[in-house]
């Protein structure tokens, strides 16, 4: 009888513990949910309610100043803002700064020309020299549409067209970024949950000593040389980035060529790999170094892409130099992380076309 009571007591205790544990488990599951679906929150940016702000351009006004006035409204707005730029052609004389909870919308035919006197990044998510940390910089941002012409056809060195650092939930879509000398189309330096889709990256010119420059650089805040405009060198690196349905090629403007690398990295911190990288359904045409370059990447999927006349389709670096935790460059080659790297269902095409 005592044995039966003992068993019943243990069973009752087990049931009570199970009931108490279940809500806790559900809370843990809820907490871990976003990590399991890192792009879900980014995709939902398009579904939010936005305060509409249409930029006006009085006669003889400076487009850079007019657009920036609208973007500045996000700093004090209690709800997200959608800045709409009317279709047209605009010359930008200064960098544009975009802030949290902003949708910058332009028609696909709107052109932003970079002025010859403009030596900075065309669009970046923060203010110069501000010490953002981690992924707590300006976030929840959409850049949607527009032809962003860096005017590199004149062989003037241009830094990156878009520079983003220390942010999360970044969506860049429906843009054309072209004619760049020496820099990147997009520099993602330490961002989390990034989607780059349905864009065209056209036309690059390099001096020749750095053939590995990327249209989209997956980067981190690992050195003062990595991203110089703002932010803290705290080894925040880009993770959870999806690059899909884009085209990488030539602008066919005199002097321009296809990119050296379509998507890749060329600097890293050994102990801070770039992770959860998805490169899906893109077309890379004529890349002169490698269409995709994995450089201390882990948990990577390269799937459904078309590689046309590229010097290499996918390059995975196993060794290389890296930054140490003190921010100094380590010349000695280290062994990189290459775990969970999948390359599948891609098409490699070689024609008689020559890219020069």
Automatic annotation (TrEMBL):
This is Right handed beta helix domain-containing protein. It comes from Ectobacillus funiculus.
């Amino acid at each position: 009888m005592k044995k039966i009571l003992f068993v019943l007591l243990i069973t009752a205790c087990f049931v009570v513990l199970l009931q108490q544990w279940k809500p806790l488990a559900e809370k843990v599951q809820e907490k871990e949910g976003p990590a399991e679906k890192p792009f879900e929150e980014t995709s939902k940016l398009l579904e939010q309610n936005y305060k509409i702000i249409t930029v006006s351009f009085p006669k003889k006004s400076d487009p850079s100043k007019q657009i920036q006035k609208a973007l500045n409204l996000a700093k004090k707005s209690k709800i997200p803002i959608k800045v709409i730029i009317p279709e047209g052609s605009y010359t930008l004389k200064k960098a544009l700064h975009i802030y949290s909870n902003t949708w910058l919308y332009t028609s696909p035919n709107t052109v932003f020309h970079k002025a010859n006197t403009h030596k900075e990044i065309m669009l970046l998510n923060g203010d110069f020299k501000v010490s953002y940390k981690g992924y707590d910089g300006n976030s929840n941002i959409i850049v949607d549409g527009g032809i962003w012409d860096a005017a590199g056809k004149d062989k003037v060195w241009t830094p990156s067209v878009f520079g983003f650092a220390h942010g999360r939930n970044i969506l860049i879509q429906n843009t054309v970024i072209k004619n760049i000398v020496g820099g990147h189309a997009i520099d993602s330096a330490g961002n989390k949950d990034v989607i780059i889709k349905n864009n065209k990256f056209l036309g690059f010119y390099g001096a020749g000593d750095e053939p590995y420059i990327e249209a989209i650089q997956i980067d981190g805040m690992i050195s003062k040389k990595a991203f110089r405009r703002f932010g803290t060198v705290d080894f925040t690196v880009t993770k959870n980035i999806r690059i899909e349905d884009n085209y990488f090629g030539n602008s066919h403007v005199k002097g321009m060529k296809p990119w050296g690398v379509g998507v890749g990295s060329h600097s890293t911190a050994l102990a801070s790999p770039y992770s959860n990288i998805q490169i899906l359904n893109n077309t890379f045409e004529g890349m002169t170094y490698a269409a995709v370059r994995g450089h201390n990447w882990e948990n990577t999927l390269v799937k459904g892409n078309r590689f046309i006349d590229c010097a290499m389709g996918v390059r995975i670096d196993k060794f290389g130099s890296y930054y140490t935790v003190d921010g100094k460059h380590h010349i000695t080659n280290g062994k990189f992380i290459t775990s969970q790297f999948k390359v599948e269902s891609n098409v490699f095409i070689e024609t008689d076309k020559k890219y020069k």
